[in-house]
Amino acid sequence: MKTLEELNLVDDFLVNSLTSHKIYGEQSARYILECILHRQIGKLTVVPQRFFCGENIETHGIRLDVYLDEENGEIFDIEADQNDGKEEIVSLPRRVRFYHAKIDAGNLTAGDTYGSLRNVIVIFITTYDPFGLNRMVYTIKNCCIEVPELEYEDGAQTIFLYTRGREGNPPEELKQLLHYMEHSSIENASTENLKKLHRMVTAVKRDGEVGLAYMKSFEREERIRRQGEEEGKKEGLEEGIIKLSRKLGKEDTEILSFLQEELQIGEGQAKRILEKYQ
Q1: Among 47, 8, 14, 2, residue whose Cα is nearest residue 177
Q2: Residue 136 confidence class, pLDDT cut points 50, 70, 90
Q3: Count H helices, E strands: the chain?
Q4: Residues near 248 by beta carbon (within 8 Å), at least 6 away in sequence
Q5: CA 51 from chain center: how many Å?
Q6: Spatial strand order in the sheet of 120-126
Q7: What is the SS3 assignment for 244?
Q8: Separation CA 114–CA 128 (nearest Å)
C-alpha cells in the first residue's frame, strides 16, 4: 500500500480528501469541474463518499467517491477509477447505468414531477482506456438510433476521461490536469492553476486529520484482507475434508462426524457445509 505522500489524485482516497477538505474542498472541486466541462460552476456542496443504500439487504447499493451538488444547478459524481481488469472494463457501462439510476432515485421526492428531475453528470477519470480508441474524452448521452440528430434531452450524461489518451482534440488545460492527476508532483504542475492545485494537495497530505483517516483506512483494509485470508483457509479446510472423505468412500454420516470433530462445530453447521460442497 502506498504512503499518503505517494498518492496521486487518481487514488480515490486523495481526491476524496482534497475535494471534501474543510478549507480546500469546494475550491479544488470547482477547478476540476470547470476544467473538465469548460464552463463556470456555481456554489458547490461536497458530499464525500455519498452512500445510496439498496432498497433492502438483498439489493445493491453504491458508494460514490465525490458527490457534488451545485446550488440551483446540476449534480456531479467524480470517480477516480483504476480497476483495469477485463471484467471490470466490460461491465463499466452497466456500472454507470446503475450509478445514474441510484442518483436519480435519491433526488426525486414524493410528489415531484419528472420534469423537476435534475441533470446528472457522472465523470470517470481512468488510467486505462475504457473503450480502446485511445481517446482522452468519451462523452456519452442517450440518443435515438433511427434519427441520431433527434434532440433527446433526458438530463443524463457520462464523461470518461482517459489520462493517457492521445486521439481527439481535448483542451490543453484538460490534458495538463489529467496528467497531473495521474502524476501529482510539483514537476507536473505546469500552469499557475495547477501550481495552486498542487499547493492544496500538499497541504491536504500534511493535514493531521487526513493522515489519521488514511492510517485508519489502511488498518481497515489490512483487517479485511486478514479476514479474507482466514475465510479462505477455513473454506479450503472444509473442502479438503470433504474431498478426502469422498475419495476414501465415506458416507455422508461419517463425513458429518468428521467435520464436527475436525472443525469443532455442531451438526447443523456441518450439514450446511456438506450441502455447500455437494
Answers
A1: 8
A2: very high
A3: 9, 6
A4: none
A5: 11
A6: 44-52, 62-70, 75-81, 120-126, 156-162, 137-140
A7: helix
A8: 36
Residues pairing with 44 in the sheet:
70
Show the cell assigned to 149. 440528430
Task: Compute the distance between CA of residue 10 and CA of residue 63 in angstroms, rounded to an integer.
Answer: 17
Contact 277, 245 (CB under 8 A): no
Which among 172, 181, 140, 149 is positioned nearest to 7, based on CA atoms?
A: 181
Give the residue, 275 or 68, on which the prediction is more confident: 68
Q: What is the DSSP code (8-state) at residue 143?
A: -
Q: Are 134 and 112 a contacting pair, CB within 8 Å?
A: no
pLDDT tier at 253, thresholds 50, 70, 90 = confident
Strand partners, 120: 75, 156
Would you say 63 and 23 are in contact if contact means Cβ atoms under 8 Å apart? Answer: no
Residue 104: exposure state from Cβ atoms within 10 A (0-12, 13-18, ≥19): middle
42 and 70 in contact (C-beta within 8 Å)?
A: yes
Say if residues 137 and 153 touch (Cβ distance below 8 Å): no
Residue in the structure block whose three cell numbers are 489518451: 165
Q: Is 119 left (phi over 0), alpha (psi -120 to 50) or beta?
A: beta
* Alpha carbon distance 19, 8 (integer Å): 13
Residue type, 12: D
| C-alpha to C-alpha distance for 64 and 257, rounded to whole angstroms | 47
Mean pLDDT value of segment 62-67: 86
